[in-house]
Amino acid sequence: MPNDEIARNRKTARQMLTDVHAQVASAESPEEKAKLGGVSHDVDIFLDLATLWHSEAIDKAIGAYQTASNIFRDASDDDEDKSLDVRQIRTSSNLGSLFLLQGNVDSAEREYQFALEKLANETGQDAEILKIDLAYNLARAYEENGDVVKASQWYRDVLRQHPEHMECESIPLALRSKLMM
């Protein structure tokens, strides 16, 4: 398929999913959501939309990720099966990263903390990798917010678990001295 056709298809898909998102976002009552059928509960639609907007419109990507996050939270409230859905963790991580790009550090911290809490009892290599990434991102958020003490605590935790963590090599000198304490 030629590149221009791919671009057109991407634009069409983004517009269609954005229209669906607007309908779901404006549905206030359970009856209005029921009229939309399963679309209002299909997290994948909103994850796809967030991905389509991710590099072009941060606000729209955040909106789609927030809708997906709400669906995850509603499902976990209703569902007796409390098994972890890694997509929920990645959604919170992506939201945190986008909030950080916007300079909304408090919201970024909240998303990273939420994801870490969801992962608290998980074990295994994939869970540990996610925990390290989230801890590093949380350290960055605290650093961005000027909380050097919390940032250094989280960086220290990352380095304790992963002494070779590449991104920690770029920690500012002011924080490095605190990490050595």
Instruction: Return the CATH class of the largest domain.
Output: Mainly Alpha
CATH topology of the largest domain: Serine Threonine Protein Phosphatase 5, Tetratricopeptide repeat
Average predicted confidence as pLDDT? 84
> Which structural class best describes the helix and strand composition?
mainly alpha
At the fourth CATH level, what is the homologous superfamily of the largest domain?
Tetratricopeptide repeat domain
Explain this structure to me?
This protein is mainly alpha-helical and 181 residues long. It has 2 domains: 1-80, no CATH class; 84-181, Serine Threonine Protein Phosphatase 5, Tetratricopeptide repeat, CATH 1.25.40.10. Helices cover 75% and strands 0% of the residues. The protein is built from 9 helices and no strands. It has helices at 3-26, 30-35, 43-53, 58-78, 86-102, 105-119, 125-144, 148-161, 173-179. Helix 7 packs antiparallel against helix 8 (148-161). The mean pLDDT is 84.
Write the layout of secondary structure elements.
Elements: H1 3-26, H2 30-35, H3 43-53, H4 58-78, H5 86-102, H6 105-119, H7 125-144, H8 148-161, H9 173-179
Helix pairs in contact: 1-3, 3-4, 4-5, 5-6, 5-7, 6-7, 7-8, 8-9
What distinguishing features does this structure have?
181 residues; mainly alpha; Serine Threonine Protein Phosphatase 5, Tetratricopeptide repeat; 2 domains; 9 helices
Task: Report a brief summary of the structure.
Helices cover 75% and strands 0% of the residues. It has 181 residues and is mainly α.
